[in-house]
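User: Please predict the structure of the protein below. I'd like the answer in structure-token form so I can feed it into my own downstream comparison script.

Assistant: Understood. Taking the following sequence of 296 residues as input:
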Amino acid sequence: MYAFKRIGLVGRPGHSGVVDSLRSIGDVLQSLGLTVVVDALSGNLLKGGRFELMDSERLAAQCDLVIVVGGDGSMLGVAPMLAAQGVPVLGVNRGRLGFLTDILPDEIEEQLGQILNGKFTEETRFLMECELRRDGEKIHGGSALNDVVLHPGTSARMLEFELFINEQFVHSQQSDGLIVATPTGSTAYSLSAGGPIMHPSLNALVLVPMYPHSLSSRPLVIDADSTIRVLIGEQRSIIPQVSCDGTPGFAANPNDELIVRKKPGALRLIHPLDHNYYQTCRSKLGWGNRLGREDD
């Protein structure tokens, strides 16, 4: 008796090797007598009609496990939908870093067999939601697993804004922008901007200023249940932009308010039993191994 019986496959076709991995995983699952449903966008590239095709949202709602094949970007693209459905997710890495998609292509058959037999660990990763308010009314919104970023778009000029946490004034700032990141996103854009690495189990957010016009401005770690409000100031020929997980995002005007808070629900990530977050950091970030020993 397998832990999962109806399994969805989602991939980003543009990534090298994704189609081959989708086909390989589908073949393994079908050989075990399991039902395989493939995201319609990816499935159209698979030859033959061996797999049932379905749009991503219906797939997530009707499967008891979803396997995402690609890089971390592939996982970020579907994370809000998968979290909303509460379906567990397994990542197969066909990208570069792979903090969220941790099974390598040559490990698929072995690792998948163990997971189907119930030998796995599960963790949850919370998401954020944001909304842009103009004159008190919501005009845009979005969700993010990694980060919400306020930035000047294509301009090289600084932004001016005021920051409030739980309606308490924190500071006003001139900088290239502000990154609000989850622990999951702390190893992404936030890390590049000088933010700390936060363990995924933490219920925290980090606010990282981007090139602030002040030597005393530093990343700030706060409780994830806080409400963040950013009041956008008057700009000089700049149209500030808000992006969620690197998406093109939306434009903001002076006196608009950006609200960021923790989103209800969470992404359920499945890992092999030997998954180790610190080993992942060593591998992906080039940390040193134990002296005189191979990595374990």
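That's the full token string. The chain has two domains: 6-119+273-285, 127-264.
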